[in-house]
Automatic annotation (TrEMBL):
This is ABC transporter substrate-binding protein. InterPro entries: BUG, Bug_dom1. Residues 1-36 form the signal peptide. Keywords: Signal. It comes from Bordetella genomosp. 11. Belongs to the UPF0065 (bug) family. Transmembrane segments: none annotated.
């Protein structure tokens, strides 16, 4: 059998060829990566960012979004356009943003907790939380000629549990859920009267058409300070700075009563994590500015606490808590 004889330096030659091939592959990979980087410009580029609000201009969601957007625009050196897309209690805007391309150029301010029959539009499903903008309490108020304080109100409800009604800004809202929590705690049967917004609910509480209102601080604050409404308790774990004499429900004797309303900025699911983190840092910077802190205080809101640093987990926990209460209270969602 013929034997094949290889040169003495064959192994060295093969090794050299292997190194050349490896270096060639590395060079190709580097060129490919560079080309990809050129094909996908760093976010954000010259394209404007659209920040959607699912409610009319002038409301609290709109005002806070515009103020934060202005600061974020300056930080990112990028045009941020706030677009109002009102209708169906914000559901039209939510669906629109959920369908948008997840590239960081479309987001929405989601007020919550708001429960809907279609839970696919909630944060954690088709939307991912980017940053928590603010938190705030719900205030239980009544007309100035009603019971003088929480103790008297509770006694009146327990004596005639079917004689009271309560207003909120809509079915499934945090205000509705707060009223349901109070009903459950007192084993009362107060009838819920939903409105399409806080202003009309406020007018009917002041006029006596509805006994009580569970409403946002900014909605009721002027009337409470003027003595036209009585504020009985707030749903937050701590007292509200603008209503320092109003107790929390816990302080008033309702153990475990804790619910806050919130505003969370959200983008379509699938948005790159690097984009989300960059936008979150810009929002965090905005929330530390004197302008935003002053606005939040005037609105009866607080900058988000530590528990809200993961906005998706924070929103999901709040929504799940609200769904449990809604189930116990036999609330039919819309």
């Amino acid at each position: 059998m013929r034997q094949h004889h290889f040169p003495k330096n064959a192994k060295a030659t093969v090794s050299k060829l292997s190194r050349m091939l490896a270096n060639g592959c590395l060079a190709v990979a580097m060129v490919t990566a560079a080309a990809a980087a050129r094909a996908e410009p760093a976010w954000p580029d010259e394209k404007p960012i659209t920040w959607v609000v699912g409610f009319s201009a002038g409301g609290s969601v709109d005002v806070i979004t515009r103020a934060v957007a202005q600061q974020v625009s300056a930080t990112l050196k990028q045009n941020v356009v706030v677009e109002n897309k009102a209708g169906a209690a914000g559901a039209i805007a939510l669906a629109s943003v959920a369908r948008a391309k997840p590239d960081g150029y479309t987001l929405i301010t989601v007020p919550g907790p708001i429960l809907r029959e279609d839970d696919g539009l909630e944060i954690g499903e088709k939307l991912v939380g980017v940053a928590t903008l603010a938190e705030g309490a719900v205030v239980m108020v009544g007309a100035a000629n009603g019971p003088a304080d929480f103790k008297q109100l509770r006694a009146a409800i327990e004596k005639t549990p079917n004689a009271f009604t309560y207003a909120s800004s809509g079915v499934g809202t945090g205000q509705h859920i707060a009223g349901a929590m109070f009903n459950l705690a007192l084993q009362a049967q107060m009838v819920h009267v939903p409105y399409k917004g806080g202003s009309q609910a406020l007018a009917n509480v002041m006029g006596g058409q509805v006994t009580l209102g569970f409403l946002g601080v900014s909605t009721v604050l002027p009337q409470v300070l003027d003595g036209k409404l009585i504020a009985y308790a707030v749903t937050s774990p701590n007292r509200v700075a603008s209503l320092p004499d109003v107790p929390t429900f816990e302080e008033a004797g309702i153990a475990g009563f804790n619910l806050t309303q919130w505003y969370v900025a959200a983008m379509p699911a699938g948005t790159p994590e690097a984009v989300i983190q960059k936008f979150r840092r810009a929002v965090d910077d905005a929330l530390r500015t004197p302008q935003i802190l002053t606005l939040l205080k005037a609105s009866g809101l607080d900058a988000p606490g530590k528990e809200a640093q993961d906005p998706t987990a924070f929103a999901r926990a709040s929504i799940e808590q609200s769904r449990m209460i809604a189930k116990k209270a036999n609330i039919t969602l819309q």
